[in-house]
Write a structure and sequence with these properties.
Largest sheet: 6 strands, mixed
CATH superfamily of the largest domain: Ribosome hibernation promotion factor-like
Structural class: alpha+beta
CATH topology of the largest domain: Double Stranded RNA Binding Domain
Order of helices and strands: EHEEEHEEEEEE
Shape: elongated
Number of helices: 2
Helix content: 10-25%
CATH class of the largest domain: Alpha Beta
Strand order of the largest sheet: 7-6-5-9-10-8
């Protein structure tokens, strides 16, 4: 890290083991993403959670080029579990930040359009005719809107196509608007 690690412990006794665990996890973040400019970690036991028992919270503030990443939602009765969970979230957020920096964008599945070809309500499945004439199986569990029982033959639908061992299938089936 370019700037030193700042550790603050509130409302709990200072512990060399806790500080060593924080330093170790911060070093791992620095190895994972070496452009971290500052890391501030606050470990505390807020008084407002007395009805739930004693829970520790961990707040991590990471300063990275052009942004700041803040993690402040991990609570647990074990301070080391709260610390682990908070640093896991920090690593995931650093991964997302690094992807955005590199210009990588998540590719979303393409939504297809077709029409309900046939329904078998007693068995809970049906078939959709794709624009190219192929038939795609779908089950009642894959219908998003309206309910499977409300679908009718010939109804236009949108869906995502998925390859299965039995052949192409439709998932996230919904009535086309």
């Amino acid at each position: 890290m370019k700037l030193p690690l700042q550790i603050t412990v509130r409302d709990i006794p200072q512990s060399d083991a806790l500080e060593a665990a924080i330093r170790e996890k911060a070093e791992k973040l620095d190895l994972f993403y070496p452009h971290i400019m500052a890391c501030r970690v606050v470990v505390e036991m807020p008084a407002k959670h007395k009805h739930k028992g004693k829970e520790f919270t961990v707040r991590i503030d990471l300063t990275v080029p052009g942004s700041e990443i803040v993690i402040n939602r991990d609570h647990h009765v074990d301070v080391y579990v709260a610390l682990r969970d908070a640093f896991d979230v920090a690593k995931r957020q650093l991964e997302d930040y690094a992807r955005r920096q590199r210009g990588e964008i998540k590719a979303h599945e393409m939504e297809n359009h077709g029409r309900v070809l046939s329904l078998f309500p007693e068995e809970g499945y049906g078939f959709i005719e794709a624009p190219d004439g192929r038939e795609l199986y779908f089950s009642a569990e894959n219908v998003v809107h309206p309910a499977f029982q409300q679908l009718e033959s010939g109804m236009p639908v949108s869906y995502l196509e998925e390859a299965a061992s039995e052949g192409p299938q439709a998932k996230r089936v919904s009535a086309a608007l």
